[in-house]
Amino acid sequence: MDHETGTHHKALHINIDATRYGTFAEIGAGQEVARWFFRVGGAAGTVAKTMSAYDMAVSDAIYGPAKRYVSRERLQAMLDHEWSLLLERLDKQRGDHTAFFVFADTVTAKSYSRQEEGHGWLGIRFQTAPHTAPSEIIIHARMWDPDNIRQQEALGVLGVNLIHGAFNLHPDPAELITSLMDELTRDRMEVDMIKFSGPAFAGVDNRLMSLQLVQQRLTNAALFTPAGEVVEPAEVLYHQSVLIERGSFRPVTNVTLDMLEQSLGQMRREPDMVGQEPVVLMEMTLRNLSTPGKQIEHADFLARVDTLSALGKMVMISNYSRFHNVTTYLRRYTHKRVGMALGVPTLVELLEAKYYTDLDGGVLEALGRLFRGPVKLYVYPWQNHRTGELVTLDSFQVPAHVQHLFAHLRTNHFVEPISDYKIAGLSILPGEVLTRLQAGDPAWETMVPPVVVRLIKQRNYFAATGGISR
Q: Is residue 296 classed as helix, strand or coil in its secondary structure?
């Protein structure tokens, strides 16, 4: 991006807009965002106040006590407090011709005493026009630069991009998301959560915005709760054991659910799981969601998410096609046990050497990464729909090139068969349920959990006509 459309231009463009006026409140990593508006000139037209409560006691006195100073709760307290003060002090004086805003961030960057990963929360509350109800955007970012100065610089750019996007791109949230990375790259910055709220975003579904973060490569994965709330991954994964099942879930079937429930039961019996309950994730990859030559259909994505939510499941959307990348991602947040529920056909694919030609160590390296820390695969049997043969972890044919390696995994309990399973439905191919549903064959209803059947019928999900089709 050139100078005329870069960070300098954006900050100057805001400064010369006489209708915008507000507060900057920044905790940690310096006043990097406010600095841009002073640097480019004309800040008196934009900045009502800028402040930084570095000392924890001072911060608590202003915003109230907090368990963590770099958190969504602290950011929200900053926005609430500063917004209230801004209107109290200035609304009567200039509210008729001013669209007010508050920008806040709370960030920890690398320092001499702290070498942990840099990350932070940034948010803006703003009016789209004078006297209108405010809207809000909150994001969480991770900073990957190896030194403090570079992290601070990146933070400043991201903050300006967020403010400029809020003012100028709020009618198109997807474009706003794209603009967050202007003059930044993924090796410097990752945005792994975004939440839009308020009248400017009345029609926005934040689950689709999470999908946008992954599609546009601002992050590799995004999570949201069964209630549809977007979450920053550490909010649910930090120091937690995790059970994950990957799939297309179009729709989620009885076999899919039984695989998960049986895996969960076996994982609970692991010696290191006493007194713990794992976080359960249903993961869809971009590959699960797309077909060649077609864009991901938002209605189709939301239909899958809604059916999983009806079962009380948390959803993860990622661009990880390979299992070992998922382990690497989870190890960013937790060193506790990770379980993965999968069927025999998926296990066969996982052991295929052709998928790891880009790794120097091939399949050996991939499995080394996969089983980093306490990790176990819980393998569900499969029934050949043509022959009726039941194929289990003990009976499936291990590829010759990994037989000794697989024997090592079995001996050391990295891979375990699911011992209790339901034979009904095992021979049904993944696409058969959808085919029957779209053909109007009522037999599909016996293959899907009742609560999901009701939701699909009520909302016409996955229908061949008048709904979602491919």
A: coil
- Ordered DSSP codes for 36-101: HHHHSS-GGGTEEEEE---SHHHHHHHH---S-SSSHHHHHHHHHHHHHHHHHHHHHHHTTT-EEE
Tokens standing for 145?
């630069």
The tokens describing 324, both together, are 């070992």
Distance CA 444, CA 449 (A): 10
pTM of the model: 0.92
d(CA 119, CA 1): 24
Spell out the domains of the chain, with CATH numbers in brackets.
3-204 (3.90.950.20), 235-459 (3.40.50.620)
Return averaged pLDDT per consecutive 10 residues of the chain, 470 residues in all.
72 96 91 95 95 86 87 95 97 96 93 73 98 98 92 96 98 97 96 98 96 97 95 96 96 95 96 95 93 85 96 97 95 96 94 90 93 96 88 91 93 94 83 92 94 96 54
CA 392 to chain centre: 33
Specify the DSSP class assigned to residue 354. G
In contact, 302 and 311? CB cutoff 8 Å: no
Whole-number Å distance between alpha carbons of 38 and 116: 30
